[in-house]
Amino acid sequence: MRKSTFSMMLAASVLAGTVTSASAQDASAQATYRDIEQTLGSVPTFFKMFPEAGIAGAWAEFKSVQLNPKTALNGKTKELIGLAVAAQVPCHYCIYFHTAAAKLNGATDAEIREAVAMAAITRHWSTVLNGMRHGPALGRRKSESRQQIATPRLPSPRRFETGRPPRRAARHPHCRAARSTHVTADKGDHHADQDR
């Protein structure tokens, strides 16, 4: 008898919490839809399709990052990134939206084309590197540093001017004393393995 009474009380408590939570959730969703409409002029379909349980959080994220003019990235840059990602996902609605939003934020047709081209180039080389199993988790040679993969070694402007590479400062504390006589990487510098 005690167990059944306890079970009924527990069930009633859970049910009451669920009903309260559902009505609070509905009120929160309705307030969020009003805020979206005030901000954007209407509630886009993708927000209407989002589960009501998460719409307040989804809108807060969207508003505080994408629509916020006080973030580290300006609106044009954010929308060009959005366009580049949308082009690769692919999401036709997102491409349309981010293109229009980028233009509203001052992006030129040339910048839009370049953002899409950068997305394509990144996708291309990601395919090549993954296909060849090249990268930190895919069997990269131990002698290669993450810096060498991330930053291609470009010739120094001084090399073009003088025909020889610039002198490098010592990279290790024990080399500081020898800085004035330090040999360049092309002539046997013991740091050469880090540069190539």
Topology summary:
Elements: H1 2-40, H2 45-49, H3 52-66, H4 75-88, H5 92-104, H6 109-131, H7 146-150, H8 157-162, H9 192-195
Helix pairs in contact: 1-3, 4-5, 4-6
The level-1 CATH class of the largest domain: Mainly Alpha
Q: Counting H and I runs of at least 4 residues, what is the number of helices?
A: 9
Number of domains: 2
Radius of gyration, Cα only, in angstroms? Answer: 28 Å
Uncertain parts = 175-196
How much is the average pLDDT? 77
Distance between the termini: 79 Å
The appropriate CATH architecture of the largest domain is Up-down Bundle
Give me the CATH fold name of the largest domain. Answer: AhpD-like
**DSSP summary, beta strand count:** 0
Q: What proportion of the residues form beta strands (DSSP E)?
A: under 5%
How would you classify the helix and strand content by structural class?
mainly alpha
Overall spatial form: extended
Describe the main β-sheet briefly.
Answer: none
